[in-house]
Amino acid sequence: MLRRTLLTLPLAAAVRRLFKLSVRVEALFPGVALPECVRRVADAGYEGFEFGDWRAADTREIVALKNKLRVECVSVVGNRGVNPKGMGLCDPAERDGFLAEIRASAEAARRFEASQIVVLTGFKIPGVPRDRQRASVVEGLKRAHDIVSPRGVTIALEPINTLAPVEPLNPKGNNHADYFLDRSSEAFAIQREVASPFVKILYDLYHAQIMDGNLIETMRANIGAIAHFHVGDVPGRHEPGTGEIHHPNVFRAIRDTGYTGFVGMEYVPSKDATTTLREVRTMVESL
Predict the structure, then answer these.
(1) How many of the other CB atoms lie within 10 Å of CB of 86?
(2) What CATH number corresponds to the domain at position 97?
(3) How many Å from the N-terminal Cα to the C-terminal Cα in the chain?
(4) Taking Cα atoms as reference points, which of 203, 181, 201 lies closest to residue 250?
(5) Are 135 and 186 in contact (CB under 8 A)?
(6) Looking at residue 16, what is its pLDDT?
(7) Does 5 map to a domain?
(8) What per-residue confidence (pLDDT) applies to 7?
(9) How many distinct structural domains can be found in the chain?
């Protein structure tokens, strides 16, 4: 009887939870080679991993390893940085560069057996009215739809906060104060205007809490437009339970929408990274 009960617990937890858990590996395991990161993700009991620089990764090695460990490659990053020079969305003059990058990243996602690419708008253009830049973002994403949709790859467009004095994932770099898309409301409005099932939003709880708050109601109202979630507490972007966001309530709200995608951990661990991942997994499975 005890063995039967234990065997049914993971299935019961999965049915209750619905969504899956992933890890943005560079944040949790800085400086660690990607294959070892994938092993640590699996060891922590997570279903998926995400990473940025697909050009530096060995496709065959990572695909073979993820299949062996039974974890998914959730997404890769579709831009060369937060402010990719010559390939941003805000400037129509950079459209060809942006679309070439999207094409290359969508093909890379297919090779890694991922279904998403994370896309960033880049920084604002000084002296250009915001409505003109927004129109360029919309047009660029509509053109990108024509590239990703035949490949079955979804663009996850990410709003990023412009208020935090530093970016905890890169404390010595730019804090993204000039990033164009920093409000969730505008991100969801852009998604509606693009009107593509292959162009959705990456809803990052850390960024959204700093800029907007009202996480649960915003998420509930826009769940159909959300491709992916990222998790980090405020302030400091550490693991859930270290700051002001009540993550059990947020996770419960995500679950109750029926969302079945991934919720990704993207935080700076305040202690051993694997320990924090296991604690978050326990938090989610106890909802």
Answers:
(1) 14
(2) 3.20.20.150
(3) 24
(4) 203
(5) no
(6) 64
(7) no
(8) 40
(9) 1
What's the domain range around 64? 20-285
For residue 9, is it within any domain? no
The rounded Cα 246 to chain-centroid distance in angstroms is: 20
Residues of the chain under the 50 pLDDT cut: 1-9, 11-15
| pLDDT at site 140 | 98
pLDDT value, residue 173: 84
Residue range 160-191, pLDDT digits in tens: 999 999 999 999 888 899 999 999 999 999 99
pLDDT per residue as tens digits for the range 56-72: 999 999 999 999 999 99
Residues 6+ apart with CB under 8 A from 120: 77, 79, 81, 82, 83, 84, 89, 157, 158, 160, 179, 181
pLDDT number for residue 12: 46
Burial class (CB in 10 A: 0-12, 13-18, 19+), 95: middle
Three-class SS of the chain:
CHHHHHHHHHHHHHHHHCCEEEEEHHHHCCCCCHHHHHHHHHHCCCCEEECCCHHHCCHHHHHHHHHHHCCEEEEEECCCCCCCCCCCCCCHHHHHHHHHHHHHHHHHHHHCCCCEEEECCCECCCCCCHHHHHHHHHHHHHHHHHHHHHHCCEEEECCCCCCCCCCCCCCCCCCCCCECCCCHHHHHHHHHHHCCCCEEEEEEHHHHHHHCCCHHHHHHHHHHHEEEEEECCCCCCCCCCCCCCCHHHHHHHHHHHCCCCEEEECCCCCCCHHHHHHHHHHHHHCC
Residue 62 in domain? yes
- Residue 177 placed within a domain: yes
